[in-house]
Design a protein that fits this description.
Number of helices: 14
Number of domains: 2
CATH class of the largest domain: Alpha Beta
Structural class: alpha/beta
Strand order of the largest sheet: 2-3-4-1-5
Oligomer: single chain
Number of strands: 12
Shape: globular
Mean pLDDT: 86
CATH architecture of the largest domain: 3-Layer(aba) Sandwich
Length: 376
């Protein structure tokens, strides 16, 4: 087999072009992806007689054993999505699909709803119909940011993936969580444990540890606080966000913490973007902000106004947000009406706000930003 095509060669080209930095953890992941690439060349479950016997549990297994998929997990900003893209773009498979897992689950629930309406009380299995629909278009499935936080998702996944794997579907997934931590502390989690065991049986689990994120190195070399709020500021925020996400498709997400849902409408590659009102004018608290730091290494916050006593609640949430980001060593790229020391100068809590100003100044420093780059 000539390795001139495949994720390994594509990765070497990025290194040669100095678009990325050499990373031992990424190289190991690429080697595993290249091995899977080779095994896919001569594999096609649709050539197996089993393919036409869709979802009859207990029927004979495919004659050709499917190659083991891959589950890559690690901290945000480690390049997991980039590696998956290299694999997906070069995969020698026509019927393939790459999708953000949150978007996939939205499709799953929409399909299940339509199927139940069509059945009108009949006892047909909507999950079998769903699996058949998925396999009509793709038998290589690549899931980005695999996570399970919802009980409805957890109850569907075990049955769905059992059917997909039984038909020879190959799965590659990236996640911030080790499989054993999926749906951690979730309702009726014991019913979800067989799915975790199935994932570990069907997928090679790889921890992408250590290393540096070259995007964070670049972030440390430019301003991350902009004022006043004008066209230039907006353009700079857009420019840096585009650099940090490298043109990746927007991945809206719904994060769940303590039973509450936090909608993230703009995110990609470990970066999330919000307007001030989205994070500080709603009834959010420390646990919500902490959840953000578990999923994103960089937060963009647009249009922070000058704060007044009339907006004391928003001010308190802003202080909490900055504290959480600072303690988690997360990055903050921010646009504001005024400079940090002028954000809140009078009213309840204005004296305590001085600590927030100090932290905002430190979070703009090259030392802070480079310290986070080294951490990742």
């Amino acid at each position: 087999m000539n390795d001139s095509t495949g994720p390994q060669e594509a990765y070497r080209k990025l290194l040669a072009d100095k678009q990325i930095q050499d990373d031992p953890g990424q190289r190991l992941a690429v080697e595993k992806l290249q091995t899977l690439h080779r095994r896919l060349i001569d594999y096609n479950p649709q050539t197996s007689p089993r393919w036409t016997q869709i979802f009859r549990l207990g029927a004979r297994k495919p004659r050709v054993e499917p190659p083991q998929g891959l589950y890559i997990y690690g901290d945000v900003g480690r390049g997991k999505s980039m590696l998956m893209d290299l694999f997906f773009d070069t995969a020698p498979v026509k019927q393939k699909r790459r999708v953000h897992f949150h978007a996939f689950m939205l499709e799953v629930h929409a399909f299940m709803h339509r199927e139940r309406q069509k059945q009108e009380g009949r006892n047909n299995d909507p999950v079998s119909a769903l699996a058949a629909s998925i396999m009509e278009s793709a038998w290589l499935l690549c899931f980005d940011e695999f996570q399970v936080t919802d009980v409805a998702d957890a109850m569907i996944l075990g049955r769905l993936f059992e059917l997909l794997f039984d038909q020879g579907v190959v799965v590659v997934a990236t996640s911030n969580r080790v499989p054993d931590d999926l749906y951690k502390d979730g309702l009726n989690r014991q019913l979800f444990l067989p799915f975790i065991a199935l994932l570990k049986e069907q997928l090679d689990v790889l921890h992408l540890a250590g290393g540096r994120d070259y995007r964070l190195d670049r972030l440390a070399e430019q301003p991350v606080y902009f004022s006043p709020l004008d066209a230039r500021t907006n353009a700079e925020m857009d420019r840096i966000y585009a650099e940090m996400t490298e043109g990746y498709e927007n991945n809206p997400q719904t994060l769940v913490t303590q039973g509450r849902k936090l909608e993230v409408s703009t995110s990609a590659r470990g970066v999330a973007r919000f307007r001030f009102e989205e994070l500080c004018a709603r009834a959010l608290g420390a646990s919500d902000y902490l959840t953000l730091t578990e999923h994103f290494h960089t937060i963009f916050l647009d249009h922070v106004p000058r704060l007044t006593p009339a907006r004391r609640n928003e001010s308190k949430r802003f202080v909490t947000l900055v504290d959480i980001l600072y303690e988690a060593k997360a990055n903050l790229v921010m646009s504001a009406e005024v400079e940090a020391e002028q954000l809140y100068t009078a009213g309840d809590g204005s004296f305590e706000f001085a600590r927030t100003v100090s932290r905002l100044m430190e979070m703009r420093s090259e030392e802070y930003l480079k310290g986070h780059a080294a951490k990742n």
